[in-house]
């Protein structure tokens, strides 16, 4: 009967619900209430802070008011910062040529632009190079070092790379070049022989600077140097804008100094005097409309660019030195202008347009965009970013479909045994496979190593992990089979001889089986608290503003609501589900709109669900409403086909997907049973309260089916509705 019941449905509708594991934080109402009283915040925000590890008044104050914290001088935190400043100051004074070696992702390009702007302003003779993603891969290499040497460079400054480039740095030292490495990636077994290394992974884990990305290290170096030279006054705001762009686009944790500086940067970005930032904001359609910005789930982010404003820069004195505490190097946000961007404005709007260039374009476009003061040039470069980003989106979609086909054909049956995916195919663009890896992690819930052939003998790829899996440790585990590799816990890049593919897949499976239990290989949905739909309103949304900016290590709050009814749903855009859900509370129906991004494969969703979601504002036509962004669903535990043979008419007929059915409630022993029959005589028999049913022409030959699958849930709900309507 399954074939006949669902023969009219597209194949994608036959899929199960997303394969997820839910982790719901335990509620501590007494602790939350006590903390709320101590800190004068709402109990729900208190609970969310408890979930994030904050239990004392002092911890809460430091988190909610990061400006209240006193930061240590970075000179006391980074052992090589002093020598780095001496090297740069000496090079500037003697007019020695400085060369920056950057990276082609958003972090690396914003770092490069930040140091170019600041060093040029400080009088340095400085240029830059970024390795070719397609032909050279990540990080400084011997070719770049040799070219720098031929060009008369005396000091090399790496940004967002270099910590794993032992051979290239060793060559630079042999050629009598001085080298400062600024990086944030995990530390290899052997450090390169640089003159100075600035990397937050080398400092104390308790340091507030520990979480900075590559652009954060560049920011600290540039600000410290500017202050040492007594020229910081005009540099802070443009550097802060670039720091904010790079930090969020690189998914750096929004804790420590990142939270403090990003919060300022988001307020300043709409009124940034950087032509490139303003051009990006215009082209991307981003506007700052209040603390959490503007724009709906589908309609985009529209609005003004913010008013120009002058911030207090008198905190710096002409002869100030770098032993002044770090918080004095940055202007306090101007509270008179509340317009601000949100992290998602950068993460989903500005960042991808920058990253797309490094993936499939020429990084010089972004460097020119972020270093020019000419608005005409900036708009031209921003439009190039826009066009290349659209091309990148198309490439991602095509590669994702091909990768899914490979997984379903070759690896899906052994996924639980392997606990990792290694997907390789020729003719994929290396610049976008990392994005596809993230989507495969989201779909299958396992670490993904995805790669493509550079030529017949070499393969290069990207990796993305899950919370319980350390990508960099996995790469180190396989180092004998690899060429170049690098990264951190969540992501990495690698290359290897093609002949090692089978051995590499085997070794990664071995590592994954040591690292992961079976319950780990489902996408994890971390949920903060339960809420009913009548509690979802603008007041709650405003209370959550206290937690912003949200991002890595300070995620957007996730709520869940049990047993909601899906009353409308449709596919919109490129495979998203737009829906309306409802909940009955005290005999009243509460409805709210929602979106499920890239869930077209699960359409239509069952009519009754438990849902997990984030809150999002929709400011369409100046009318603000709160909507849901679904991150998880599961079949409502009711599956409660609560019906009886006496309270409901015994028989009815109905149409479902253009087919005719009869249905009725019958007694099967002591319990009632719903039976649905099609025109071919096959019957679906569902016992009251059961999650499975019998399907077949008779009980002896019937098979057991899972009615949580959407095709069964839909027809069952249609039958119950038909029976109810004839009362």
Using brief descriptors, characterize the structure shown.
single chain; 727 residues; alpha/beta; OB fold (Dihydrolipoamide Acetyltransferase, E2P); inorganic pyrophosphatase (n-terminal core); Diaminopimelate Epimerase, Chain A, domain 1; 4 domains; 6-stranded antiparallel beta sheet; 5-stranded parallel beta sheet; 22 helices; 36% helix; 21% strand; globular; disordered N terminus; SSDNA_exonuclease_RecJ; exonuclease; DDH_dom; DHHA1_dom
Largest β sheet strand count, sense and barrel closure: 6 strands, antiparallel
Q: Helix coverage percent of residues?
A: 25-40%
| Mean of residue pLDDT values | 85
Shape: globular
How many domains? The number is 4
Rg of Cα set:
28 Å
